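Incident log, structure service

09:12 report received: a user says their structure output differs between two submissions of the same chain.
09:20 pulled the input from the user's history:
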Amino acid sequence: MITDPAGCAATSAPILVNILSTLNPVANITASNDRVCDWSPITLSSDSTHGNVWSTGDTTQTIVLDHAANITLTVSNSAGCTSQSQQSISQSFTPPAPFTSASISVCENSSVNLVVDGLAPGGKAFNGTENGPWYYVNQNIPETNITIEMWVKTTMTNGGIFQAIDFATGGYDRTLYVVNGELWTRTYSNLTGWNTGFKINDGMWHHIALVIETGIGQTVYVDGNSSGVGSTLDHSDFTWQTSFIIGRCYDGAISILTGQVDNLRIWDEARTQAEIRDNMLYETPLFTDHLIYHALLDDNVTQ
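09:34 re-ran on a clean worker, output below:
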């Protein structure tokens, strides 16, 4: 009923309002741990036995996770009411075990120095300006059966990390770059890159590796976790490159890196996931067969 200031009133036709007696769902995530150690899986469970939709696409009550991720759980009931819960999962790695440089004997109550052959904190800083630093390395690299890996730390939304290049013609590919915080890559003759799905601009160190393998295609690993085959193009058609650049890439909205890079390695073989995981924490790989370029990026870049 509506009444105006003069006291005149009008009444609408009745409408039916259904009040649902069903209780609103409550979304709650219970995690066995909030951190993945190395790649040991953890379990995330919903308190609800039905109506679960995880941001991973799963609809089960429980999911298993072996990498860092921001997880959202949506629970709905038969009336269409929904509730959400979020859980942030981080990932950390066991440092390499200390070792002695040679077999030695130690007398009782004596001491011995042990050396940890792991990555020290740090890396080469790139300031995101045209004046650099960024590094041009005059070395050819393979078009297929190649692995390009390094540690990267950045908070940039967009920017370049790496590319093979020929300055004479301006051609470039085998690129690694960031778009909206996520890692992308492109290999010619593809004219557009593909999104690995990994967000790396959280200001933490991430190990990234691009593998191009004959008969398989392109796979990217971030912190030892696989993107799956993102492109079936198993080689580069850009065969006249002469060099590569660290800290810059012409794909993407911004070409220059703001952040740090550490321990860049290039191999003339397609490294397996196990090989990448086994060596990523070492400053020097356990085995160096097929290692064709290595820069610790503590001012030892060969240009």
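09:41 both user submissions now match this output. Likely a transient worker issue. Closing.
09:42 reviewer note: The mean pLDDT is 90. The helical segments are 273-279.
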